[in-house]
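User: Predict the structure for this protein chain, please.
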Amino acid sequence: MIERVGIIGVGELAGYVVEGLLNAVPGLEIVLSPRNEAVSADLAQRFGVTVAAHNQAVADSADLILVATRPPDVLAACESVEFRADHNVVSTAAGVPMASLEPAVAPASVVRAMPITCSAINRSPTLLYPDRPRVRALFDLLGNVHVVDDEAQFTAASTITAFYGWVYALLDETVVWTVREGVPLSTARALVLETARGAAEMGLANPERGLSGLLDSLATPGGVTREGLRILAEQGSLAAWVDALDAVHHRMRGDS
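Assistant: Here is the predicted structure, written as structure tokens:
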């Protein structure tokens, strides 16, 4: 059982994680590093969490430590702290492999995790590698946990965190177009977001049909769905989407 969680690197993601954890377990003790003073102070005021004097104090007071710094800073942050053998250290740094993290946190064990900002509403699909029961139990509080078999799978699947951001861009463009055509903003926003949620929930509810099967049922000959898909294909929009995924994957792997 996790009694106290420490967070080193208190940026935007950490704030969403804190909010989600305390939604799920209001009495959970969370200790924050003081590095980002404004964010730490805000979280302390909003949620009653503790701000430690320094990173070592965070580790000394917790049994699970989430290191949520920027990727270029994660190794230095870990190397500045003396961890215990019973610590679980969780890195959310994209593109920083286990081979680099393990010596930086020794003798503690290290886990890579990739939660996203909807942790705040306890709907984050969180990637995890390798599987550690205590760490999995923590992220179960924030949504669904997906444990992968190896680090190559983790790296590939981490690309979806970029896709998460792109979805907002696509939805926003659609809202802007709908408003331009005379629909009130509140109606346009709700309609677009509810439509996207409905599509996702239909996919989750019908795994046996596959997403292509659900699309085929909508893209009937002569219909508006097929017409739109034709234009997207002619302009290379979907191919460009795949190119963007490839580019992010290459960066996650550290390819030159």
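The beta strands are 4-8, 29-32, 50-51, 64-67, 88-91, 109-114, 126-129, 145-147.
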